[in-house]
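Need fresh eyes. Consider my entry:
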Amino acid sequence: MSSASARPIPADRPPDPAARLRRFGALFGAGFRRWATYRQAAIAGLFTNTVFGVMIYSLMVALAADGRRPGGYDAAQLATYVWVGQGILSVVHVWSWNELADRVRSGEVTSDLLRPIDPFEAFLAADLGRAAYAVLARMLVPVLTGALFFTMYVPQRPYTLPLFALSLLLGTVLSFALRYLVNLGAFWLLDARGLGALWMLASGIFAGTFFPLRFLPDWAQALLWFGTPFPGLYQIPLDVLVERPGPAQQIGSVVLQLAWVAVLVPVVLRVQRAATDKLVIQGG
């Protein structure tokens, strides 16, 4: 085992914004193309999302029988929550991601740190490309399935759809920032699988993927909304789409997502700087 200082090589002059944008776009496209090669996995995932959609919707519609409104949702809003939710699972990607941790363990991360683009920015661009592919390959089919066979809620406010698109983008960035932060733990632990398991458990429960967080008591909702970024991954985009809160709350929840992004990204960059002050390479 050897120890080496590994920081990105500073540029001789400030980076050209146009060149930086081109690099980001190239990595975005690479991420899109990479995931587009996994066609069989996409088909299998669509089948799984559809099956789980039917199962979850059956439970939700039972809760809304006889005109009841669990969590304030009517039956149509719950149908949209379930079917669009199954679609955006792969977009936001709340599951485990260990690419950076694997590269830390193998020592390949040193090459990432020597490239003329920050590793966080590079991985983020690729992840957004993955998310864009997921919108086309994994989101549209569950939404169309729900619309064909069930009564879904149609947004009434003209700004809801563009606000939902923005909320989904922010949720994806939040998810990536948290996944990246978990992976940075590998700089100290070398094996971040334990942190990854905790991440999957926390994101599943506290993001609203298992059940709508509005089913919880008001105090628990407030604690999750303002004390953690997790509702911004999944619950908030879906609430924006079904217009569950009033207009002020609908816009305010997206502002809350933006605030969490503004908090988390500097935290991630600071932890990354601390991690790369002294990089330990296994087998070096």
